[in-house]
Every structure is written in structure tokens, then in C-alpha cells.
């Protein structure tokens, strides 16, 4: 036997709205999950984990006990441009191919042959 449906407002209760935070932490202005190590790539026009997709560039000289903070470089598909991710900077630099796998822009130069 079916129970009758009661549509009266006497039995309806207001349910509280529960806000849930996004699992994984805050997102930046591009929607990248910063807690997951994502950062925006101008070159790829998407969120990336640079430590997984970029080429690591470690300092040439380090002092004993000093923390090594790496820079990274990321190439577009045809390697005509490279995006430079430097530590402690808010924006990345796009380097254009200059000659023989060299990339440059202003004060920065990257030699793909030497990885420097």
C-alpha cells in the first residue's frame, strides 16, 4: 500500500545550505590548483605542473648547506619558443628562437644544445 504524499508546508523544513571547499586547495586567477603545484603557462595556455613537464635548470654554483632552487624551461611543440620559469618571480619570460637552438629575450638567453 502506498503512503499518501503530503505537500503541505507544515511538514517542510528549511534545509541549511552547506558550502564545501574545493578539494586540493585554492585556485589562482587562471584556475590553477596552487596546492597541487600547478602554475599557468603562457606558452601552453593551460595549467601545468612545471616540475613534471619542464626541463629543470639548477644553479651552476651552490654553497654547502644552501637550498637549491631550480628554474625551469618549457618549449612549445615546434621548439620555436621557450617559456622561462624563474624562482621568486610572478611572471614568466617567453624566449624566441634566435639561432641554432638558442632562445633569447632581453637579458635572458637559453642554449638548448648546452642546456644552459
**Gap between N and C termini:** 80 Å
Strand order of the largest sheet: 3-4-5-6-7-8
H/E element sequence: EEHEEEEEE
How would you sum up the major sheet?
6 strands, antiparallel
List how many beta strands DSSP finds. Answer: 8
Give the DSSP E fraction (strand runs of 2 or more residues). Answer: 25-35%
Low-confidence stretches: none
DSSP helix count? 1
| Overall geometry | extended
What portion of residues is helical?
Answer: under 10%
Can you describe this structure in just a few lines?
The protein is mainly beta and 116 residues long. The chain has one helix at 50-53; strands spanning 39-41, 46-48, 55-57, 71-75, 81-85, 93-99, 102-105, 108-111. It has a domain at 34-56 and 70-110.
Topology summary:
Blueprint: E1 39-41, E2 46-48, H1 50-53, E3 55-57, E4 71-75, E5 81-85, E6 93-99, E7 102-105, E8 108-111
What does this structure look like?
The structure is a single chain. A hairpin with a 2-residue loop joins strand 7 and strand 8. The chain is mainly β and 116 residues long. It is 3% helix and 29% strand. The protein is built from 1 helix and 8 strands, in the order ββαββββββ. It has a domain of 64 residues.
What are the defining features of this structure?
single chain; about 120 residues; mainly beta; six-stranded antiparallel beta sheet; two-stranded antiparallel ribbon; 1 helix; 8 strands; about 30% strand; extended
Amino acid at each position: 500500500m502506498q503512503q499518501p504524499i503530503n505537500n503541505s508546508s507544515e511538514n517542510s523544513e528549511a534545509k541549511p545550505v552547506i558550502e564545501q571547499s574545493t578539494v586540493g586547495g585554492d585556485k589562482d586567477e587562471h584556475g590553477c590548483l596552487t596546492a597541487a603545484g600547478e602554475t599557468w603557462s603562457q606558452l601552453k595556455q593551460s595549467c601545468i605542473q612545471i616540475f613534471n613537464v619542464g626541463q629543470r635548470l639548477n644553479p651552476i654554483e651552490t654553497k654547502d648547506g644552501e637550498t637549491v632552487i631550480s628554474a625551469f624551461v618549457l618549449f612549445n611543440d615546434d621548439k620555436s619558443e621557450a617559456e622561462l620559469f624563474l624562482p621568486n618571480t610572478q611572471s614568466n619570460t617567453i624566449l624566441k628562437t634566435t639561432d641554432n637552438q638558442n632562445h633569447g629575450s632581453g637579458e635572458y638567453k637559453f642554449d638548448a644544445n648546452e642546456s644552459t
